[in-house]
Give the backbone structure.
Amino acid sequence: MAYNLPTNVTPGATGHTALHNQTNVAVNDLDARATAIEGSAARQIFIPAAQFSIVSGTPLLTSAAPVAWQRWLLDPGSTEIVNTAIVPPLGWTTATARIHWSSESTQTGSAVIQFRALPVKNNGDTLTSGEASQQLTLAAPAQSVLSVNDFPTAINVSTADPLNRPLLQFSIRRLGADAADTYPNDISLIGVSLIKAS
């Protein structure tokens, strides 16, 4: 919010008029500084594969050939889940999720990938309540080719107590047993970006 308070006073003015002018100058200066800080704040964070843990199934964390990128291999035919938790950046209200992934073979087909997030958790909150999900059915890219896809719905990352530094937990799932998941080999999860929406 730009205040742009008037700072013109009658030349030679003293007392209350001059004090009012000085106050407005100070408020405008703070306003400009706050705007500059907000403009330079992080608008995107990347969470690499190594920061995720196994929740379900037998995903494999590897950096083996054919590429040296560390990645989770998520199998076909079953649901495999990895998750992580972060402290949302201060000043973020909502964010969208972006998946960075690839495929592990030259075969073709589609993968069903789901993003699930719990509401931001403050001290004293129940850790398991309120999970929401969204999913994409994506054509598998060529082997070892990076694919970047956005989940469409922004999630709420704001909190009533930002100084308490709340936690945001989210997971990535490959729904390999879903009828729409037709890619017959592993997909590779390289990481997830969260992008500030507001």
Q: What stands out?
A: The chain has a mean pLDDT of 86.
